[in-house]
Design brief:
The chain is α/β, with parallel strands linked by helices. The protein folds into two domains: about 5-180 and about 300-390, Zn peptidases (Aminopeptidase, 3-Layer(aba) Sandwich); about 185-295, Alpha-Beta Plaits, CATH 3.30.70. Helix content is about 35%, strand content about 25%. It has helices at about 5-10, 10-25, 35-45, 105-120, 140-150, 210-225, 265-285, 305-315, 335-340, 370-390; strands at about 50-55, 60-65, 65-75, 125-135, 160-165, 175, 180, 185-195, 195-200, 235-240, 250, 250-260, 290-295, 300, 320-325, 345-350. The strands form four sheets. An eight-stranded mixed β-sheet has the order 1-2-4-3-5-16-6-15, sandwiched between helices. Strands 10-12-8-13 form a four-stranded antiparallel β-sheet, with helices on one face. A two-stranded antiparallel ribbon has the order 7-14. Helix 2 (about 10-25) runs antiparallel to helix 4 (about 105-120). The radius of gyration is 24 Å and the shape is elongated. The structure holds nickel (II) ion. Nickel (II) ion (NI) binds near residues 104 and 164.
């Protein structure tokens, strides 16, 4: 097996320069025009067949090997967040109110690094690599937009791999767990309708605010009473809207929130119960309630065989000091759509910035990461893909 460490190391300056350039010019969901342009140019320069405008601002490129073999999908996300950067690096965001605060600038740079290393070995590739540079991960819609435009067809990938720079782990540690590692996310709304009245005469109305409070509390019993204690579920009501002033009982109350689960079964059970609770608690209070929801992402599920294969590969890299085989989060990621019904692995590359005395996590205005992880990420991702398609020693 070829050791890609030295090659990735030789790309170090380029990986960092590219990441910093993207960091200076962050673009949010479906507006990644400059970023997509840079990605497409770099891939064309490597001689890849490039398709742009996939799912609005996404880029797909195929690296075709010299012999036939499997198709491996490599996914990177390109979007930034609507956050105003508080770092004062020389390469800090130059766009007010926008920032790469999750590391997607790094993911884009890493995937371009992988494309460069593998395209240099085209003659020894048996199969092909499909590079997918995705827009709008942060709003959970970019992957779907690309899937809707056929990214999983012609050719359909046999395996999907991807990574996330991960600041809860230090440099050198890799999070790579089996099974569900990130939750599916669903957004929900409940509209409760009662009957408005003067606040001094509650008996003449039907108060939707009191009813909403009961529903919020009752939702939490789904987690504690309905779900198998060995399963995991989060139900968070994050927005409560009702009324305009102190002396009027409003006509309606509205709740918004998110549900996170590691399986569709748990998620579906949660919604079955939420509907019953919303409607029947409301009825008990003389109100009516309507529950609406939209599944944004499905859980990210690592295939056990593929995961095991990559773990043994990563353990041979001296820079990898520890594999965290329990790395899981209730956060969500729409990479799951590229792994649906296809064996895949999504892993976390430890990247906590040792320069920062205080810890600032992903999506914080002072987020930053250890740039050594760009080299390690490139070498691990290249090795992972090569283990499927590289025919030489
Ligand atoms: Ni992210």
């Amino acid at each position: 097996m070829i050791d890609f460490r030295a090659q990735a190391d030789a790309l170090s300056e380029k990986l960092i320069a590219r990441r910093r350039d993207l960091h200076r010019h962050p673009e949010t969901a479906f507006e990644e025009v400059r970023t997509a342009g840079i990605v497409a140019d770099a891939l064309r320069e490597l001689g890849l067949e490039v398709q742009t405008g996939v799912g609005k601002t996404g880029v797909v490129a195929i690296l075709e090997g010299s012999q036939d073999g499997p198709t491996i999908l490599v996914r990177a996300d390109m979007d930034a967040l609507p956050i105003h950067e508080e770092n004062d690096f020389e390469y800090a965001s130059q766009t007010a109110g926008k920032m790469h605060a999750c590391g997607h600038d790094g993911h884009t740079s890493i995937a371009l690094g992988v494309a460069e290393l593998l395209s240099a070995r085209r003659d020894s590739l048996a199969g092909r690599v499909k590079f997918v540079f995705q827009p709008a991960e942060e709003v959970g819609r970019g992957a779907q937009a690309m899937v809707d435009e056929g990214v999983m067809r012609d050719p359909r990938p046999d395996v999907t791999v991807g990574l996330h720079l991960w600041n809860s782990l230090p440099y050198g540690e890799i999070g790579i767990a089996d099974g569900a590692i990130m939750a599916g996310a669903t957004v929900f709304h409940v509209k409760i309708t009662g009957k408005g009245s003067h606040a001094a005469s509650p008996h003449l109305g039907i108060d939707p605010v009191v009813c909403a409070a009961q529903i919020i509390g009752a939702f939490q019993t789904i987690v504690s009473r309905n779900i198998d204690p060995m399963d995991t579920l989060v139900i968070s009501v994050t927005k409560v809207n009702a009324g305009d002033t102190h002396n009027v009982i409003p006509q309606t109350a509205e709740l918004t929130g998110t549900v996170r689960a590691f399986s569709r079964q748990v998620r579906d059970l949660a919604f079955e119960r939420m509907k019953t609770i919303a409607e029947q608690v409301a009825a008990a209070f003389g109100c009516s309630a309507e529950l609406h929801y939209e599944h944004l992402t499905i859980p990210v599920v690592n295939n056990p065989q593929t995961t095991e294969k990559l773990r043994s590969l990563f353990l041979t890299q001296p820079e990898v000091t520890r594999l965290d085989v329990n790395a899981r989060t209730m956060g969500s990621e729409d990479v799951s759509l590229f792994m649906d019904d296809i064996p895949g692995v999504y892993f976390f590359v430890g990247a906590r910035d040792p320069q920062q005395t205080e810890y600032y996590g992903h999506h914080h205005p002072r987020f930053s990461f250890d740039e050594r992880a760009l080299v390690l990420g490139t070498s691990l991702l290249t090795s992972a893909v090569a283990s499927y398609v590289l025919s030489e020693g």
